[in-house]
Write a structure and sequence with these properties.
By secondary structure, the chain is mostly helical. 47% of the residues lie in helices and 4% in strands. The protein contains 16 helices and 4 strands. The protein binds 2-acetamido-2-deoxy-beta-D-glucopyranose (2 copies).
């Protein structure tokens, strides 16, 4: 009798455990499948937010000047030395590739923090799903009608979408670099990510490629845009156009009309002074250290012949660059050559002073000699050619924070500003593990 009861209970218990188990399994499977479905749905329909009503963008997202700068006069039209004006805080920085733009980003991050501005950041990685065209929905926590001050991460420019995101008074700025140098840098940094380069023979793939680019280049090939007219591509244009195609001139005109200031890497300090003038910033806002500098041994010196070939290969970018080189120097002349020379000298002096305050040894060092992981820059695939800095040990209290921020590589700074970069970081860990 007892035994029977016991057996019955046992059987019931086993049955219940089984039921529980299958329920748990079902639950887990269900959860996993639902998560996968949600993930797939999110990935496949980035326009998920757009069922909400559209709210037009505001005219300005600047704080009231009275709250921010109680001391300011209202004389913004006539800027003379000693007079003040309200700094422009609504900024679109079109971050082009391999153009010292990480250095400039660091300037923007600090400016944004100083004025408590709202950045339109990407989500989960450090670009807006480059190379696909920019969409507002890629912005972290985006909702229609929201006020963002600054957007500055890598994107493929898409004017209508950017215009629907940012206030109307936004200043559009960007930076260009001489295309032969840019091409060389891009080849070094991204070459391994472009499959058609794998079949280029020899150690000096760049030279081999430039001797007969049409033999290797595949316009349809994965990532091929990195190696032809990359600037034009970044602006959302077609990088494979022939030079005499009317769309080239149209593209350049479009950029001219849209962007208020086009800086040049070759004249970085002069560019910053023009920026200060155009946006009414302070000299303090322009202080910088060169970030993402390449180790000397990996910087190839292009021969005049290779340079000519690189320019011919990137003819559209060359035309773009020459056009904006002209407008740049017109601006410098309008600013005043003498005044520009003085301001540049002042900026260089201030930067040098900061370097002696902040940087151990006063200069950049190779990745292996960087002590803090927080100061390690992101490296190109397959090598450690990007240099970084060591923060001095006993920087005085007044400068400690500023020094740290000025030296901080982009990924770390983005993390500090609250961007979750799990895709970028996962990719970094995978590379670390397979030692790539
Ligand atoms: C603004 O500038 C004008 C001309 O330079 C001057 O007459 C006027 O007093 C200035 N106003 C203020 C508030 O400084
Ligand atoms: C840019 O313009 C300046 C001034 O006109 C000129 O001296 C320089 O050679 C130009 N640079 C290029 C790369 O065209």
């Amino acid at each position: 009798m007892h035994e029977g009861n016991l057996r019955f209970c046992w059987a019931m218990a086993v049955k219940q455990v089984r039921q529980w188990r299958s329920m748990c399994k079902g639950l887990i499977l269900g959860t996993v499948l639902t998560s996968c479905m949600i993930l797939l749905y999110c990935l496949s329909t980035p326009q998920i937010h757009f069922s909400m009503p559209e709210v037009p963008v505001p005219y300005s997202c600047a704080h009231r000047p009275s709250q921010l700068h109680p001391k300011l006069t209202t004389n913004t039209s006539q800027k003379k030395p000693g007079q003040t004006c309200a700094p422009k805080v609504d900024i679109m920085f079109m971050k082009t590739h391999k153009t010292a733009s990480s250095t400039f980003l660091n300037i923007l991050f600090r400016f944004g923090e100083k004025h408590r501005l709202k950045f339109a950041f990407p989500d989960s990685r450090n670009d807006f799903f480059y190379p696909s065209l920019f969409q507002r929905s890629q912005v972290k926590d985006y909702r229609s009608g929201m006020c963002f001050n600054i957007i500055c991460n890598h994107m493929r420019f898409n004017a209508p979408e950017v215009a629907k995101l940012l206030p109307m008074d936004t200043s559009y700025i960007t930076i260009l670099r001489e295309p032969a140098e840019l091409f060389e840098s891009s080849f070094h940094y991204f070459g391994r990510l472009v499959p058609f380069t794998w079949k280029i023979p020899g150690d000096d793939k760049l030279t081999e490629f430039l001797l007969d680019p049409h033999r290797y280049f595949d316009p349809e090939g994965f990532n091929s845009f990195y190696l032809k007219n990359l600037l034009f591509f970044d602006f959302g244009q077609d990088n494979t156009l022939e030079l005499d195609d009317p769309r080239v001139a149209e593209g350049i005109k479009f950029i001219t009309d849209r962007f208020q200031l086009i800086m040049l890497v070759e004249y970085f300090e002069e560019s910053l002074i023009l920026l200060k003038d155009a946006l009414c910033w302070d000299m303090d806002d322009l202080l910088f250290f060169k970030l993402n500098v390449r180790k000397g041994s990996t910087v190839s010196k292009l021969t005049p012949e290779l340079r000519a070939r690189a320019l011919e290969w990137n003819a559209v970018d060359w035309k773009l660059y020459q056009h904006f080189n002209q407008t740049f120097w017109k601006k410098v002349h309008a600013y005043g050559l003498q005044r520009m020379a003085e301001d540049v000298a002042e900026l260089r002096r201030r930067n040098k002073e900061m370097a002696s305050i902040c940087i151990e040894g006063g200069h950049a060092v190779e990745a292996g000699s960087i002590q803090e992981t927080d100061m390690q820059p992101w490296q190109p695939i397959g090598e450690k050619s990007i240099m970084g800095y060591n923060l001095k040990k006993n920087v005085d209290k007044a400068h400690r924070k500023l020094c740290r921020k000025m030296l901080m590589p982009e990924i770390q700074y983005l993390t500090e500003l609250g961007v979750n970069l799990w895709i970028t970081k996962l990719w970094g860990h995978v590379r670390e593990i397979i030692n790539w």
